[in-house]
Amino acid sequence: MFSKDLAIDLGTANTLVYMRGKGIVLNEPSVVALQSDGRAGHRILAYGRDAKKMSGKVPGNIVVIRPLRDGVITDFEVASAMLMHFIIKVRKWLRIFKPRMVIAVPSGITRVERRAVTEAALEAGARKVFLIEEPMAAAIGADLSVTEPVCSMVADIGGGTTDVAVISLGGIVSGKSVRVAGDKMDASIIRYIRNKYHLMIGESTAENVKMAVGNAFPDPWNIETWEVKGRAVASGIPGIITVTSADIREAISDQMESIITTFREVLEKTPPELAADITERGIVLTGGGALLKNLDKALSDETGLPIKLADNPLLTVALGSGKILDNIKVLKQVMID
User: Fold this and answer.
1) Cβ–Cβ under 8 Å, residues 164 and 175
2) How many whole angstroms separate alpha carbon 108 and alpha carbon 79?
3) pTM recorded for the entire structure
4) Interatomic CA distance for residues 134 and 128, integer angstroms
5) Which one is the CATH code of 6-30+66-136+317-334: 3.30.70.100, 3.30.420.40, 3.40.1440.10, 3.90.850.10?
6) Using one digit for the tens of pLDDT, what is the confidence trace for 122-159?
7) What are the pLDDT digits (tens) for 74-83?
8) Do 17 and 25 form a contact (C-beta atoms < 8 A)?
9) Judging by DSSP bridges, how do beta strands 68-69 and 72-73 pair with one another?
10) Angle CA(165)–CA(135)–CA(143) in degrees, nearest 5?
11) Going by DSSP bridges, is the β-strand pair 62-65/152-157 parallel, antiparallel, or unpaired?
12) Domain ranges (residues) in the chain
């Protein structure tokens, strides 16, 4: 009665935890603040939202890091500590009752990377760990048919990866995962503003600009503008410039082209019988990156297919993972080794 199994969307940008019987109980940035102890070591100061608030505002002996990059763990020790912190936050009795965990991972990660996720979860207190692919969890979270002999196509665009998959009968018929998503867009915006306007900005500012005036399909007759604060490259003096939606579309053009190419490659590998289902049923977008304004319109224009945004794109993978946790039959069908 005390054991509450968990489903986790361990994302590059955010970590979400779903508790059986309660739904999503935690949604925090996948960020950790570390302080150097002067002996080539460090101690953890803050996790999640508290750590993200410190980003770009810390002295030299404190760093704010993300222990996951491009959808995979890059700092095992810190990732395990972060996962443990989040789990204890939602399960105070963790040390006595260890939960089973379903964890969603990008479809393109290697066996070594999958093992790192499993070991981090076990280190954080899991009794048993089941891995599922993010596009499968996204499809289930979006209420698409994944175990029937019909085709569902989903694209999960997160912080570190874009996963595009065609799903039928509980498996991925054709799919591709690329390490191009929201983070790469933010990095491109930083470079673009530095090169065009000679202003240095940080990751948080780039993300805010992207959400404010980023547009995958901007209207040339209705250009949006946004004031950006940063530091002048030449003088080092704080400055303010105005960017437009057209600027941001130009800045993220490489990432947009990569995502469009991924869509095309997955569609080209899809059997004709299933392709007919896609034409009828369309493609569903999930993930934080899917919130980029008019992304659905841009992708529809490129592919000629109906594309729609999931009802809760930021929560879809976590909700799908939770549904899988609640259905052992589906879990056996979709889990990966």
Assistant:
1) yes
2) 20
3) 0.92
4) 19
5) 3.30.420.40
6) 988 888 999 999 999 999 999 998 888 888 999 999 99
7) 999 999 999 9
8) yes
9) antiparallel
10) 105
11) unpaired
12) 6-30+66-136+317-334, 144-310
